[in-house]
Amino acid sequence: MSDRLTLATSSGLPFLLLAFHVGTGLIALASGYIAIAARKGGTWHRRSGMVFVCAMIVTGMTAVAIATFEGKPSNAGGAVTVYFVLTAYTAVKPLSLRLVDVVLMVLAFTFAAGSYGNAFTALDNPGNQIDGVPAAMLFFLATVILLAAIGDARVILAGGIQGTRRLARHLWRMCFGLFIASGTFVAQLAPMKFLPAPIRSVPVIVALAAGPLVVLLYWMWRVRLRQNLRGLMTTKPIEAP
Fold first, then answer.
1. What is the C-alpha end-to-end distance of the chain, expressed in Å?
2. What residues contact 112, with CB distance under 8 A and at least 6 apart?
3. pLDDT digits (tens, 9 = 90+) for 117-167
4. Predicted local distance difference test score (pLDDT) of residue 237
5. Three-class secondary structure assignment of the chain
6. Any idea where the domains of the chain sit in the sequence?
7. Phi, psi torsion values for 95, nearest 5 degrees
8. Is the pTM of this model over 0.85?
9. Helices 135-158 + 77-92 axis angle, to 10
10. Burial class of 34 by CB neighbour count within 10 A (0 to 12, 13 to 18, 19+)
11. Residue 133 backbone dihedrals phi, psi, to 5 degrees
């Protein structure tokens, strides 16, 4: 197994790959937080959201390459992130080829099964963790992925969704993708000394890590439960059922 790849210890192509991964990750974080703060459906939201999707796809794929280079037994974390942002995007921009939705659903069920396997493996490891990730977090991620896969199956069987369900699907998956990105940033990048000290402060770290999850819960409460669409701009009217 290879040693953990870091900017300080790597060189050559691995260094360039990691530096590119970090750069696109920072772009994803910045654009993701802009999309959260901007008026939903407005110009800033659409543009920053598109940048976020593209940056997260690139960041996720390079994460898979880095994990493979390091020889990690599980290297699907980046692919899971790509899955969430892709399905969030297709919630508002459906694909004409339904086969892609089926493939993404199958991948989600596969990711969920693998995540549950890693979670149970972590329970047998010292400290109940794998690569520093506690078993409880692995169970949490596996459950969210499983729920997302079940949601995919329901959408495919129904032939698509409209109204507040479609909007809620887009919002929660985008927020969860940002949650994964921010959590990774906190776990791996925040402790690095080359980052400014204010970013490494505890309040900022907590806000970066938990902020997207709090926003996710807010939008699910507002859009899915209360069906309140006031102030949201959409390409066509969305009527609450």
1. 54
2. 142, 143, 145, 146, 149
3. 989 998 988 888 887 788 898 999 999 999 999 999 999 998 888 888 899
4. 45
5. CCCCCCCCCCCHHHHHHHHHHHHHHHHHHHHHHHHHHCCCCCHHHHHHHHHHHHHHHHHHHHHHHHHHHHCCCCCCHHHHHHHHHHHHHHHHCCCCCHHHHHHHHHHHHHHHHHHHHHHHHHHHCCCCEECCEEHHHHHHHHHHHHHHHHHHHHHHHHCCCCHHHHHHHHHHHHHHHHHHHHHHHHHHHCCCCCCCHHHHCHHHHHHHHHHHHHHHHHHHHHHHHCCCCCCCCCCCCCCCC
6. 97-159
7. -85, 145
8. no
9. 30
10. middle
11. -95, 120
What length is written for the chain? 241
Long-range CB contact pairs, 18-21, < 8 A, 24+ = 18/66, 20/62, 21/59, 21/62, 21/63, 21/66
Closest of 27, 26, 33 to residue 51, by C-alpha? 27
Both tokens assigned to 2 = 């290879």
